[in-house]
Amino acid sequence: MKRLVLLLFGDFRISWIRTLLQLVRGHRILVGRRFRLKGRPELADDQSRLTLGTRPYGFATGRDDGILRVRGRLLIRGRVAIGVGSRIEVAPGALMDVGEDSYFSPNVRIIVSSGLTVGRGCAIGWDVQILDDDQHVFRSGDRQRPRSAPISLGDHVWVGSKAMIFKGVEIADGCVIASGAVVTRSVDEPNSLIAGNPASVVRRGIDWD
Questions:
Q1: pTM for the whole thing?
Q2: Where do the structural domains in the chain lie, given as residue ranges?
Q3: What is the mean pLDDT of each run of 10 residues along the chain (209 residues)?
Q4: Class for domain 2-204, per CATH?
């Protein structure tokens, strides 16, 4: 009952009009009063839910503006929450696939031009940036780097606040990316602690709850 009251009347309350519009269309999506949803996320099954800017989180306030713009595909598997102030763009032809019980803290910045997979039970900290596109073409001599490449986070991955993850990175299950890390290379060893700029494995055999 307390959760329902907060959803309807609290600082992180839903937008009645935007949420009702989703529910009438058969979409189990709760949209916060300062969150904009453009496009149509896909819910994998009847158990899947998506909440946008409706959950209290530490320092955050319900007055932070957020936007989720889906021009490609966003597939939600299970219950997924996106925090207030977040800005996420899924470009035409791109796929963002999010596993059950994963959440994105406030003020994340995500651009998906090619593909982003987030496994089950992942925790994405506040102010995290995930960019699978350089936004520019980079050349060195006769070589030209690809501008975009998919990113993949395995199951149960924790990304600390203000970390940045760039194109082509793949992270194994159970890893932790430390706050402020700049991740430009893949890590294929599960349960690793990844830190630094540029980021590398600094400890192995870790676990987190």
A1: 0.90
A2: 2-204
A3: 58 77 86 93 94 85 90 97 97 97 97 97 97 80 78 98 97 98 97 97 96
A4: mainly beta
